[in-house]
Design brief:
Layout lengths: L5 E9 L2 E9 L6 E7 L2 E5 L4 H12 L6 E6 L5 H7 L4 E8 L2 H8 L6 H6 L3 E5 L2 H6 L13 E6 L19 H9 L1 E11 L5 H10 L4 E8 L6 E10 L4
Helix pairs in contact: 1-2, 6-7
Length: about 240
């Protein structure tokens, strides 16, 4: 059966806008490309996954050598979560996403990594507001609201300055960072993806709570495959006693 060059696999309204999943064929490689949009804003593409996997790799590289409980804020196409599951130390992975359709795509097998994530007994996909869980504004009866983790990795907003929704802003303040630290066990790691260049002001806030915080620039091929694009991964850890 001949594949369609382009199709919209799903389109649903959510509290923060219309989210859609599209599949198209890349004319240069003849491979399927999966893309996610929120209204007219591109959120992610399976053509560009280096920074998503590097978010997981950077966090786990700094994590203690022990069984790890990991929470990932933002599911997307699942590349960060899949990279986390590649690490044999991971005992449990909780992936929190506020958009129910995104979780449905994985459970229904509409995206390539869906069967892998849903088929791994270590992995749980949770429909919740990640920021609400961390900041304590979500359901206090949720068992994840009081859980401690060894790694907290976040890929939701475009950057600490360019947010998908204004209610996310408190997460990037000193108080919000303090809430993240409170969710980490000793030696635990916080990692954050950003589409912007390193932000000195945000990095300074991180270092007030976790002095070893650093910003790593990730380089990958751009859309033309002739140049380079960059993103940033922030990594910081809580000292061991």
């Amino acid at each position: 059966m001949r594949r369609r060059r382009f199709e919209e696999l799903d389109h649903q309204q959510t509290p923060i806008g219309a989210v859609s999943l599209r599949r198209r064929i890349d004319p240069r490689t003849d491979e399927d490309v999966f893309e996610v949009k929120l209204d007219d804003d591109f959120l992610m593409s399976s053509m560009f996954t280096t920074s998503e996997t590097e978010l997981a790799h950077a966090a786990l590289a700094h994590a203690p050598d022990r069984p790890l409980d990991v929470v990932v804020g933002g599911l997307g196409l699942g590349y960060t979560a899949a990279a986390v599951l590649d690490d044999e130390r991971v005992r449990e992975l909780v992936v929190v996403d506020a958009l129910a359709p995104v979780i449905g795509w994985h459970r229904d097998g509409l995206v390539p990594l869906g069967p892998r994530l849903t088929g791994d007994p270590r992995c749980r996909l949770v429909h919740r507001d990640f920021f609400g869980l961390v900041l304590g504004t979500d359901d206090a009866d949720d068992p994840d609201a009081a859980a401690l983790f060894d790694v907290v990795a976040v890929d939701i907003d475009h950057s600490p300055r360019h947010l998908l929704h204004e209610r996310h802003a408190p997460f990037y303040t000193d108080e919000g960072i303090g809430r993240v630290v409170a969710r980490l066990r000793p030696g635990g790691v916080f990692a954050l993806w950003s589409d912007d260049a390193p932000d000195d002001e945000y990095l300074a806030r991180l270092r007030r709570a976790m002095p070893d915080a650093r910003a790593q620039v990730v380089t990958f091929p751009d859309a033309t495959r002739t140049g380079e694009a960059t993103s940033t991964v922030y990594v910081a850890s809580v000292p061991q006693p």
